[in-house]
Specification:
- It is globular and about 50 Å long.
- The protein is about 20% helix and about 25% strand.
- The chain has a four-stranded antiparallel beta sheet.
- The chain has one domain: GIY-YIG endonuclease.
- A hairpin with a 4-residue loop joins strand 2 and strand 3.
- The N and C termini lie far apart (about 40 Å).
- The protein contains two helices and four strands, in the order E-E-E-H-E-H.
- The longest helix has 15 residues.
- It is an alpha+beta fold and about 130 residues long.
């Protein structure tokens, strides 16, 4: 496999059926999204964005837990995942997840499951006035 040209993302796979969770390699680290598929429209709605950045279960374990969860299980049919390189820290993965949460924080569909709507650390770097940007 050729090396990825991206600094953070090693590889990704999208629109995978829940039936394929077992095929996800163990301890895969990165960002994932739970999706609801509307086959007749060929559309996927994002219902949740999450991360797995530690050395425990990885994305596969998180997907299994979401699959068994009574509150989440019925809301999603597919998933997309983005694997990060081994040198990407857990804090960097959290920052990536935070960016996605920030983007989707006002989306009524994407926030059905996200309890933490925005990434708090982004508040520290928010600038409303473009004239202060250099």
């Amino acid at each position: 496999m050729p090396a990825s040209e991206l600094r953070l993302i090693k590889r990704f796979s999208e629109f995978r059926s829940r039936d394929e969770i077992e095929n996800v390699p163990p301890n895969t680290r990165g960002i994932y999204a739970l999706l609801k598929n509307y086959p007749r429209l060929n559309l996927y709605d994002v219902v949740y964005v999450g991360m797995a950045g530690g050395s425990k279960a990885g994305i596969k374990g998180r997907l299994k837990r979401h699959s068994r969860s009574k509150s989440k299980s019925e809301l999603w049919t597919h998933f997309t995942l983005f694997e990060v390189w081994p040198n990407i820290t857990e804090n960097e993965i959290k920052e990536l997840e935070g960016l996605f949460r920030q983007i989707y924080r006002k989306d009524k569909r994407a926030n059905k499951l996200n309890k933490q709507k925005q990434f708090g650390l982004l508040k520290k770097v928010r600038e409303k006035n473009f004239s202060t940007w250099s």
